[in-house]
Amino acid sequence: MAWGIIATWRMALEGIIKAKEILENGQSSLDAVETAVNMVEDCPEYRSVGYGGLPNENCQVELDAAFMDGDTLSIGAVGGLRDFKNPVSIARKLMQEKFNIFLVGSGAEEYAHKTGFERINMLTEYSKKEWYKKRKEIYDKNLNPYDGHDTVGMVGLDKRGKIAVATSTSGLFMKKHGRVGDSPLSGSGFYADSKIGAASATGLGEDIMKGCISYEIVSLMDKGYHPQYAAEYAVYNLNKKLIDRRGKAGDISVVCMNNKGEWGVATNINKFSFVVATDSQKPTVYIASFSNGKTTYKEASREWINTHTE
Ligand code: SD4
Question: Which residue range(s) make up the domain with 66?
Answer without folding.
Answer: 4-307
